[in-house]
Amino acid sequence: MGRTLRDILDAAARGVFPPADGRTTVLPQPCDRDAGVLSFTAHSVVFTDEDPRWVRDTLAALDCDRLAATMNPRFLAALMDRTGRGCETVDAVLVGSPLPGEPPLALKEIEDPDHPRAAYARARRDDVRAWTADGGVVVTGRGVAGRLEVSVEVDEDVRERGLGRLLVTAARHLADEPLWAQVTPGNARSLRAFQSAGYRPVGAELLLRRPDAATTGHAGG
């Protein structure tokens, strides 16, 4: 297993996961913006600049299944208190490989830096790019440990017509490396769209946001 968070993510994108040994790996944050927890099958990764001994002692003190300890609300609350950061929700994490050829629908790149969806993404990602389609928006940018991430938004009046699936498929045609998505588990519609477009679930994730980070506009993917 790689010893940096990016190593672990790159391996997971290839289908190579940390050992299912019930352990927790504690790593430094890849940057000041991003801290949090990644949960794979029977192995978790906590990425924080806090003392690793504190992380392990706090996990050991929990009265719960150790395989679920890093996503236990008591641990997450303690981690937020310790870091002074907030969070939104635990997301399902999926990854899709790039696809050759042109996207399956017409896209127009958004040049306006103040476009709401692009502005929201810039609070969480670097090198943000956004495109519009008839009834939707697709956004890519570099998020946790520099991985390429995608999010989409579909207008309410055109939902349930397959546009979400087309948008997340289009994103794979725009990428030349693995493309990551974070989806709220309760957003079944978005999860179905990503999975039908060939994205594979790899784990769960909770990101801790700095107090100055935007906290509105969280959308599927």
From TrEMBL:
Pfam families: Acetyltransf_1. One of its GO terms (molecular function) is acyltransferase activity, transferring groups other than amino-acyl groups. SUPFAM superfamilies: Acyl-CoA N-acyltransferases (Nat) (SSF55729). The keyword NAD does not apply. It comes from the Bacteria. Residues 94-221 form the N-acetyltransferase domain. InterPro entries: Acyl_CoA_acyltransferase, GNAT_dom. Keywords: Transferase. This is GNAT family N-acetyltransferase. It comes from Streptomyces galbus. The lineage of its organism: Bacteria, Bacillati, Actinomycetota, Actinomycetes, Kitasatosporales.
